[in-house]
Automatic annotation (TrEMBL):
<dbReference type="InterPro" id="IPR036255">
    <property type="entry name" value="YgfB-like_sf"/>
</dbReference>
<dbReference type="GO" id="GO:0005829">
    <property type="term" value="C:cytosol"/>
</dbReference>
<dbReference type="InterPro" id="IPR011978">
    <property type="entry name" value="YgfB-like"/>
</dbReference>
<protein>
    <submittedName>
        <fullName>UPF0149 family protein</fullName>
    </submittedName>
</protein>
<dbReference type="Pfam" id="PF03695">
    <property type="entry name" value="UPF0149"/>
</dbReference>
<comment type="similarity">
    <text>Belongs to the UPF0149 family.</text>
</comment>
Length: 226
């Protein structure tokens, strides 16, 4: 997997954060493929089955994937959107211009609620919602690109103001990653390794942006001078 040459990700903003999180994380699997997004939320694992959600989207004629929905929801949360599921659902509909209803609407609101909890989890148990590892690398890459693009869409729906430097660099990285594609000259193992590295970067980059937004929202006001 690669990004277009002129847009390659050059930021080191998340590297110290990523290394610190990986060093302190308890129970982290040696192989990232060994963990699923909702392992921590084991009571919700059947709710967010990728293929099931994709089927609901297809039935409703929605031109979006589960990764698109999740990326947008996470972008909304990372920008400081309210944690209430109804608020997230309404913002998603506006950001992606979709009209979801029935069981799918309920699933999306549950996904928003669980994603908010995962972003706040002290053990960093947050994972992008992507196709299973037995899917073709091209399919997973397309979903990852969709997740990133939708994250940016969700974030800018809520926050169009200036962000902290680290977050700004991460968002520029996301824009570069959104141009990613599979390097046809790379071996299968190289493509898999590149994909997993990008997924891991997205996890902690999204967490970093989320925590920056939270820090800004609780920052004390400067005392007034008399």
């Amino acid at each position: 997997m690669r990004s277009t040459k002129q847009n390659q990700c050059k930021s080191e903003a998340c590297r110290p954060f990523l290394e610190a999180c990986l060093n302190c994380r308890r129970g982290w699997a040696k192989n990232p493929r060994e963990r699923g997004m909702h392992e921590f939320f084991d009571t919700e694992t059947t709710v967010f089955d990728f293929d099931e959600m994709a089927g609901h989207l297809l039935e409703q004629g929605v031109d979006a994937s589960p990764s698109d929905l999740h990326g947008c929801l996470c972008g909304l949360l990372a920008a400081g959107a309210p944690a209430q599921p109804e608020a997230g659902f309404a913002l998603l509909a506006q950001a992606l211009d979709v009209d979801l209803h029935g069981e799918l609407a309920g699933l999306v609101m549950q996904l928003y609620e669980v994603s908010a909890a995962a972003l706040e989890d002290d053990e960093f148990d947050f994972h992008p919602l992507l196709p299973d590892d037995d899917s073709e690398i091209e399919v997973r890459t397309l979903a990852l690109v969709g997740w990133v693009r939708s994250f940016i869409t969700g974030f800018t729906r809520v926050n169009r103001e200036t962000v902290r430097q680290d977050s700004a660099e991460i968002l520029r990285d996301f824009a570069a990653i959104a141009q990613a594609n599979v390097d046809e000259g790379a071996s299968e193992e190289e493509s898999e390794d590149s994909y997993l590295e990008l997924v891991e970067y997205l996890r902690f980059a999204a967490l970093n942006v989320f925590m920056d937004s939270r820090a800004d929202s609780v920052a004390p006001e400067a005392p007034s001078l008399h």
